[in-house]
Design a protein that fits this description.
6 helices; alpha+beta
Length: 203
């Protein structure tokens, strides 16, 4: 009986060693772990809309993706309401053009809406050199001032990764965690941890 148990234990290992040596035509083997990872990725990231990160690489120069934000914004695209550029709206209509009453800008301190938003195309953000990026690439705009945090974000030390720690890397955008108009987190009252009942006898 012990012999049979040992045999069954060795069979999977032997098969893996056989496969690891390559096929008869010298083709590279496919480890079972990668098949597991692929199926895991499909389950965890199948409903995540992501786009390739531009201008930044992950550890070792690897490419990664960022979760798309434009689809989560209720008033996007901006052109659904703004049919012309903000600059072309007459001054008399100024009270009607600012309908985002829920926004109380606190950031940037020495700036205004035009510091980040492109008045000629409100679906785009404007960088300090005049170039524009879409809202899904807001990290490029944030990085112009917060470059150290951007480096940590690209390297994986800042922000949140979706799906898992192996395989395809999809991360949240800066604006998924931080309100771009008031990015600092409000102070919170610390709470006690959960009270877990004792299961063993006290000594």
């Amino acid at each position: 009986m012990r012999f049979l148990r040992s045999l069954f234990t060795l069979v999977p290992t032997s098969l893996w060693l056989l496969v690891a040596c390559g096929g008869p035509n010298g083709e590279a083997p496919v480890p079972p772990a990668s098949l597991e990872t692929n199926s895991l990725e499909l389950r965890q990231l199948k409903d995540v809309d992501a786009i390739a990160v531009e201008a930044y690489n992950g550890p070792g120069g690897t490419a990664f993706e960022v979760q798309q934000r434009s689809g989560q914004i209720g008033q996007y695209p901006c052109s659904s309401c703004h049919t012309q550029s903000v600059e072309s709206v007459p001054a008399a209509a100024a009270d009607r053009r600012w309908t985002h009453q829920n926004i109380r800008p606190q950031h940037p301190i020495q700036g205004n809406c035009a510091t980040c938003h492109n008045y000629e195309d409100l679906n785009m953000l404007v960088l300090e050199d005049g170039s524009t990026v879409g809202l899904d690439h807001a990290y490029q705009l944030c990085a112009r001032c917060h470059f150290e945090q951007a480096q940590d974000w690209a390297g994986g030390a800042h922000g949140k990764r979706l799906g898992g720690w192996s395989g395809r890397r999809v991360v949240m955008n800066c604006t998924d965690c931080h309100d771009p108009h008031a990015p600092a987190f409000a102070p919170r009252m610390p709470l006690l941890g959960p009270r877990v009942p004792r299961t063993g006898k006290a000594h």
